[in-house]
Amino acid sequence: MVRVVKKLVRDWSFDCVSLGFPGPIINECPLREPHNLAGGWMGFDFRKAFGCPVKVINDAAMQALGSYAGGRMLFLGLGTGLGAAMIVDGMLQPRKAAIIGAGARGRGPN
């Protein structure tokens, strides 16, 4: 993935990379391999691969932070699964809502 991204953005100028990962993150590292992507994510050195600082967070958290406008917001992201994030007064809350994703697979909106 890094090789392809670097080729696609070779003419862009940037100082860092932000990566939204489809699964739980601990200390900016994937806790386990994602079920919807090939393996190799755990222990991968993104900083070395990109040659700049890389911030890795949960993809639902990243989307929530990008759309946050204040107060208390529950973010529900539908993609290959159901991602969830809670922001209270500008602070991303611990990911206790991760259990929502596990229980929602294969279900409709009801």
Detailed description of the structure:
The protein contains 4 helices and 7 strands; from the N terminus they run H-E-E-E-H-E-H-E-E-E-H. With 110 residues, the chain is α+β, with helices and mostly antiparallel strands. The strands form 3 sheets. It has a 3-stranded antiparallel beta sheet with strand order 5-6-7, sandwiched between helices. A two-stranded parallel ribbon has the order 1-4. It is globular and about 40 Å long.
Summarize the SSE layout with pairings.
Blueprint lengths: L1 H7 L8 E5 L3 E2 L2 E2 L15 H5 L3 E5 H9 L4 E7 L3 E7 L2 E2 L5 H7 L6
Parallel strand pairs: 1-4
Antiparallel strand pairs: 2-3, 5-6, 6-7
Question: Quick summary of this structure?
Answer:
This protein is α+β, with helices and mostly antiparallel strands and 110 residues long. It has one domain (2-104): Nucleotidyltransferase, domain 5. It is 25% helix and 27% strand.
Order of neighbouring strands in the sheet with most strands: 5-6-7
Largest sheet, strands/sense/barrel: 3 strands, antiparallel
Count of the separate structural domains: 1
As a percent range, the share of strand residues is 25-35%
Per DSSP, the total helix count is: 4
Shape: globular
Stretches with pLDDT under 50, minimum 5 residues: none
Mean pLDDT: 85
* Cα distance spanning the termini: 36 Å
DSSP strand count: 7
Order of helices and strands: HEEEHEHEEEH
- What would CATH call the class? Alpha Beta
Per the CATH scheme, the topology name is Nucleotidyltransferase, domain 5
Per CATH, the architecture is: 2-Layer Sandwich
Q: Determine Rg (CA atoms, Å).
A: 15 Å
Classify the helix fraction into a percent range.
25-40%
Name the structural class.
alpha+beta
